[in-house]
Amino acid sequence: MPRTVRAALIQAACERGGEGDPASIKAEMVEKHIGLIRTAAESGAQVCCLQELFFGPYFAAEQNAKWWSLAEPIDGSSGPGPTIRHMQDLAKKHGMALVVPILEEAMTGYYFNTAAVIDGRGNLLGKYRKHHIPHCDPGFWEKYYFTPGDGGYPVFDLGFAKIGVYICYDRHFPEGA
Questions:
Q1: What count of other Cβ atoms lies within 10 Å of the Cβ of residue 40?
Q2: Per the residue annotation, which of 14, 48, 49, 168 is the catalytic one?
């Protein structure tokens, strides 16, 4: 018996690019995505995937220490940071699973390009950390920011489907598939 899973993919521009205070850029981008997530839910999506580093511009095109201020934990000893907590509330409100890629601070000095996976009840199911980190000119200075992922290739059970997550450059490598 065939089964249909409705998915929404959101990729939104950061109008200010890298200009301005990272905290205000982050707040604007989170606010922008709230409306896009609502639209996805109203359209019947069961799972909504946000773009890599959704809450800012793709800052890894440069090496600038100001972007470290965007980092937050996903599942540390004090729980998730404010963005993931907010996304958990949105997932629960809309009854829709979310894949939320952020700059994760695992501990001081250890940062990952990570996607949190949240089910439609708002539960944090886990995370996927990007494994393959490009570092080349022009525009990919990711090793300045990110540690290579260390969590394997988890599969997340959303109840209505099982999913795996890749982040950008990982798609060029066969391990996860």
A1: 24
A2: 168
